[in-house]
C-alpha cells in the first residue's frame, strides 16, 4: 500500500512533456545548427576569396583550401585536418628550394646548399610567412592560447627582421599552415611544380641568400674558440633557472635564458658569449657580427 502510494506521488509530480513539444525542441536544435552552418559557410566563402587574393592563385577545388586551414583540434565534422596536406607540402617545398639553389649556385658544395635550404624552410621562416599574411586568422582551431603566442612571436621578430637563427620560439602551427597551403596548391594544380613555385616564391619573399645567411650562434661560438685554442665549459642550470652559461678559459663569457625551450636558451648563451668575445678581444669578425650590437634579453 505504502509503495503504491509513493509511486503514485512520484508519477504525479513528474510533468510528462507532450510528444509535439519534444519534436518542436528537436526541430529548433536542427534549425539553430543549420543557421550556424550557413553562417560558417558564408564566412569561409569570404575567407576563400581573401586567401586566393593574397596568394594569387584560384583554387579549382576550394575544399582543399578549407582543409589546409583546419587544425586537428578544430573538431570539424566536414573536413579532415591539414596534417596530410602539411606532409606533402613539406616535401614539395624542400624540393622546390633545393632545385632553385642547385641551379642558382652551380659551384656551391652540398653542405652550404643544405644550410641555405634549411634556413629558408625552417619553422621560423615559415611562421614569419604566416604572420606576414595573417594566415592564422583563417585557421579553424580550438587553441585558446594561439592568439597570444602569435602576438608574442610577432613582437620577437622585430628584433630580428630577417631571421633570428634559433633565438626566438615560433609557434609550429604557423609553419604547419604554410606547408599545408603549399600541399593544397600542389594537389589542386594537378601536381605542377612550376605552378606551385610561382605561388611559393612570392610567399617566401624575402628569401635568405648567401649574402645574408648567418652562421648558427653555437657553431660560430665554438669555431672561434677552437681557432684560438680556448677551452669551453657549459654550465647547465636550465631545469632550475631556465639559463645556460658559457665559460671560456675559466672566465664567464655569457649566458642565455629561455624557460620555454632549452635549445633556445643554449643558442642565446652561445650568441651572448660570442658577442662578449668579439667586443672585448681582438678576434677576426664576420659579416654578421653587427648583430652583437643588439641588446639580448
UniProtKB/TrEMBL annotation:
<keyword id="KW-0255">Endonuclease</keyword>
<dbReference type="Pfam" id="PF00636">
    <property type="entry name" value="Ribonuclease_3"/>
</dbReference>
<dbReference type="GO" id="GO:0004525">
    <property type="term" value="F:ribonuclease III activity"/>
</dbReference>
<dbReference type="GO" id="GO:0005634">
    <property type="term" value="C:nucleus"/>
</dbReference>
<keyword id="KW-0460">Magnesium</keyword>
<dbReference type="GO" id="GO:0030422">
    <property type="term" value="P:siRNA processing"/>
</dbReference>
<keyword id="KW-0378">Hydrolase</keyword>
<keyword id="KW-0540">Nuclease</keyword>
<keyword id="KW-0479">Metal-binding</keyword>
<dbReference type="GO" id="GO:0003723">
    <property type="term" value="F:RNA binding"/>
</dbReference>
<feature type="domain" description="RNase III">
    <location>
        <begin position="48"/>
        <end position="190"/>
    </location>
</feature>
<protein>
    <recommendedName>
        <fullName>RNase III domain-containing protein</fullName>
    </recommendedName>
</protein>
<dbReference type="GO" id="GO:0046872">
    <property type="term" value="F:metal ion binding"/>
</dbReference>
<dbReference type="InterPro" id="IPR036389">
    <property type="entry name" value="RNase_III_sf"/>
</dbReference>
<keyword id="KW-0694">RNA-binding</keyword>
<dbReference type="InterPro" id="IPR000999">
    <property type="entry name" value="RNase_III_dom"/>
</dbReference>
<dbReference type="GO" id="GO:0005737">
    <property type="term" value="C:cytoplasm"/>
</dbReference>
